[in-house]
Structures are given as C-alpha cells and as structure tokens.
Amino acid sequence: MSISRPIKLAGLTMFLIVMIWVMAYPIARYLIPSDTFNEPFEPVYNGLNVLFTALAFGGVIITLAFQAEESRIARREEIERSIFELFQTFTSLEFQQVKDGAFRALLTGIQHREYAEYLASRLFVVEQLPFPPACAKTLRTLDAEKQNLDDQQIIHADRADRLMLDNILNFFAMLAQRESSATVIKHCDFAYDWWRPALWIIAELQQRRHANSEKIRMYCKNQLVTTTLKALDKVYGHAPLNSSREVWEYITQHPKLLDFGLDPEFNDYLSTPETSA
Q1: Do 71 and 105 fall within a single domain?
Q2: Last residue of some domain: 56, 78, 100?
Q3: What is the C-alpha separation between 268 and 264, in angstroms, rounded?
Q4: Which of 56, 110, 121, 168 qualifies as a cystine partner to 102, CB 3.0-4.6 A?
Q5: CA atoms within 13 A on the CB side of 25
Q6: Are 221 and 203 in contact (CB under 8 A)?
Q7: Are 129 and 68 found together in one domain?
Q8: Interatomic CA distance for residues 47 and 150, integer angstroms
C-alpha cells in the first residue's frame, strides 16, 4: 500500500508550521514596541502555545489526508478485485456456453447483414424486426443441435443464442465501468480483440436505428453498445472510431471478418450518410 503522498504532505505541513513559528518572533520584535517583551516568560509561553496549537491543527490535516489516501487505495483494490472476479466468470466452463451461443449469433450476423440488423433491432423494446427466414440455414450449419429443427423451432433456439449475446454485452458493459483500472484489465485476457469487430457491427447498426427513430429515442433509454466499445477501445489502446465511415472501413477491411465470410452488403454502408459513432 503506497502512502508516500500523505507522508510528503505531513512533512511539508510540519515544516511550514515550524518555519512560520520561527519567523514570527523576530518579525514581531521588529514590528511591536520593545516594552511588550519585557516579561520573558509570557512571550515564550504564548509562543510555545501557538506552536503546539498549530502542530495539532496540522495533525488534523495530516490525519484527513491519510484517511483520504486509504479510501482511494481501498476503492482501487475493490475495483481490481471485481475485475479478477469478472475474469474468473469469463473463463469458467459455465460461461463458455454463453460465449459459444453469443458468438454463433454474431457469426450469423457477420455472414448476413439482414440478421445483423435483426440483432440490433432486438436490443430495443420497440420497432423490432422479424426473424429473417433466409438465415435459418446458416444457423443450422453453425450449430449441430439445430440441424433437425423446423423453422419455428429455429426461431425459438435462436432466441436462446440472442439472450446469451445480451449476457456478453452486459458483461463487457460492466468491464467498461472499470476503465479506471485499465492496467489490470489489460493483464487479463478477455479476448476483446476477437469480440471487437463483430460487436462494432451490432453497435453501429444499433446507433443508426437509435439516431433515425424518434420512437426508439423516446422509449429506449438503455446505454448504447457504442459507449461500451469506446471505453474498452481506450483501455486496450485501439485507435478511436469517430464516425460511421471509420467504423465501416474498419469492419469491411478486418481480416478476421473477411475470413468468417463477411456479407458484401455491408459495403453499402460506406456510401450512406454519416452518423456519429
């Protein structure tokens, strides 16, 4: 536990008090008539009384400084402890199912722009898009358990994956709130570089729907995914994406998304009007 700052403050406070006290007597002798100091014991007593009073006051200031420093360190340690708890959750076997389901949904969105827009719409309580039937084949391909499901069952199974994606978004939102402990976050492998490009697709589509719909802005007050990603980009040292065009240039040129079979229709967004990312 580092307490160097309060110690420095304590030393400086005591030094200033003693220096002021030492300088006060000769200055007073110069400014005040000499007959005031005819009685030697009273000035000495008063001077010592002033010194100890000042030192006591300085002690109060130093105590408050130590308490403030200890509180700051305790808050930092609490945040760091919560980050390690999040990391344990992220790497647990139970959470692996959440990550698998969420990434299946994101992979489908990568390969089908229509499904990505559907995912983004489902992050709002109003103006939700219907499930795109053309994506059912991809969902069956990505998950062996869905291969024998009919269209209605696929929609129900897809809902489970979308709920897992919601859990991932909530997880990263909680992680972004620990931005003040960026060093600790970077030392824990949350695989953010893998999630980042796919999440930016959903984030940008959500941002567009929010900007273009007065009804969504009226009824939906939840934090946008872009807020989370901007905070995490800062933590991990990624270059900020400040406009829609920068986002779509990043997405359409990302090697991993291209390997996953990025839908060419995402290139259409490069020529659409700008919205602030």
Answers
A1: no
A2: 78
A3: 8
A4: 168
A5: 15
A6: no
A7: no
A8: 94
Q: How distant is the alpha carbon of residue 122 from its chain centre?
A: 23
User: How many CB atoms are located within 10 Å of the residue 253 CB?
Assistant: 11
At residue 95, the pLDDT reads 84
Look at residues 124, 216, 248, 105 and name the one whose alpha carbon lies nearest to residue 165: 105
Whether 208 and 149 map to the same domain: the answer is: yes
Report if residue 157 sits inside a domain.
yes
Place of tokens 């976050």: 185
Q: How many residues does the chain have?
A: 277
For residue 74, tell me if it sits in a domain. yes
User: Cα separation of 163 and 242, whole Å?
Assistant: 29
Give the predicted TM-score (pTM) of the model.
0.71
Please provide the DSSP assignment of 180-243 as one string.
GGHHHHHTS---HHHHHHHHHHHHHHHHHHHHH-HHHHHH--SPPHHHHHHHHHHHHTPPP--B
The separation between CA 62 and the C-alpha centre of its own chain, rounded to angstroms, equals: 33
Q: Indicate if 262 and 217 belong to the same structural domain.
A: yes
Handedness of CA 247, 252, 255, 258 (dihedral sign): positive
Residues ≥6 apart with Cβ < 8 Å to 24:
47, 50
85 domain residue, yes or no: no
- Domain boundaries, position 48: 4-78
The confidence score (pLDDT) of residue 165 equals 94
pLDDT means over runs of 10, the chain (277 residues): 60 70 61 52 55 68 76 74 75 84 95 96 95 92 88 90 93 79 72 94 96 95 94 91 94 96 94 63
CA distances from 76 to 72, 82, 249 (A): 6, 10, 37
Number of domains, the chain: 2
The rounded distance, in Å, linking the Cα atoms of 224 and 211 is: 11
Q: What is the pLDDT of residue 69?
A: 76
**Residue in the block written with tokens 């130590």:** 66
